[in-house]
Amino acid sequence: RKSYLKFDLPDAPTNVYSAKLWLKVSSLSGFSTIHTAKFVDDDSWDEATITWNNKPTEGTTLDSQTGHIVGNWIVFDVTSQVETERKGNDTISFVITETSLDELLTTYFTKEADEDDRPVLAIISGDGIAADADAYVMGGSNQNVNYGSTETMVVKKHDIELYNRKSYMRFDLSHINDTVSSASLMVKLVSINGTTINNVRYISDDSWNESSITWQNKPAEGVTLNVQNIQTAGWIEYDITEQVESERIGDGKISLVIVDSTLTNVLATYATREAANVYDRPYLLINNSETLQRIASSSVNFDAIDNNSTEINKILTFPNPATSYFVIDLNDAVDAQVYLFDAKGLLLYNQENVIGKIVVPTDTYKMGVYLLRVIDKSNVYMEKILINK
User: Is 136 left (phi over 0), alpha (psi -120 to 50) or beta?
Assistant: First the structure.
């Protein structure tokens, strides 16, 4: 059996930074399986006529997932293909296949299910601005060496100047005409060898050049705009809204530097605009960043059987969609662990040893789709949380 889904993307914004295919497990005949999401190039298939004999050809493997539990959401990362299709025919098809030969039967909900159970394509999008310059500088005997053409930039604070490193970026804001309501610096942390704190600071002098900047001639640092605890590779988001809006109505450019504010001697390595993977390059996420939901326009599961889904818990969440908060009623769950992730998989909130009801504040989160995971001694509960503003 294979399951096909098709989504229309006519309203997708011009920039797509993350796209996740969310499928909710309806039933499962075992406990361990691996499913793969593949691209289907032919969008002409119809859910009313598709069969095994006329099914379209499978294409590139996009992502594989395991850990299926009845009632949980399985999330496939399909970012690169969604961005490609958005620039093409604005329609995208997927097929979900079984990778292992364990003969387990997994049933997902389709678009004919209740609204909260239907397949969702969650797209993180917005007005993204790529860096027009980036480089890092190094102290000591390397103080006159330029590092403006490398695929990575480095941040480190050491008690010996030779090992100190700072990373600089500049962005052009001249094409932004409207007031900036939100702006985040998005940088991909490629590697890190410990835990530390990185600061983003404002640079008033935009005249520096990535091909000539060194430790010796680097521009002066200004105010600290945002601080993040850095410990795991992945996307790091720094909120710099106020400074971006100030520079938009000013000279139309903004320069930033990432520095380490501790003496942990931890080396943090970020991708630059020269990175081989274009999806790893730094950018500003501006103004209208939002998560769009696209309910599958067509979905079909060959030979799917009707099974009653098993309710794994009596945990309740409300209101959903949420605005400034939502409540988790744990009922009989004891010593539960509560986690909230964004669509990129970043952990935003967690509480341990929870009993009864808790209120999760969401007023600082952007509009979008989030994943709630609650674990008690005997169950794992997962729920899609929608945040509207």
Answer: beta
For 179, the token pair is: 């007031």
| Short-list 167, 291, 296, 132, CA closest to 238 | 167
pLDDT surpassing 80 at residue 300: no
- The closest of 94, 98, 99, 89 to 121, measured between CA atoms, is 94
Point out which residues pair with 40 in neighbouring strands. Answer: 93
Phi first, then psi, for residue 142 (nearest 5°) are: -100, 15
Two structure tokens written together for 106: 């997994």
Alpha-carbon gap, residue 36 to 114, rounded angstroms: 24
Q: In this structure, what token pair is assigned to residue 224?
A: 């600290």
Query: What's the chain's average pLDDT?
Result: 83
Across 314-353, b (16+ Cβ under 10 Å) vs e yields ebebeeeebeeebebebeebeebebbbbbbbeeeeeeeee
pLDDT reported for residue 288: 42
Q: What is the pTM of this model?
A: 0.51
Q: Is 315 in a helix, a strand, or coil?
A: coil
CA distance 143 to 166: 12
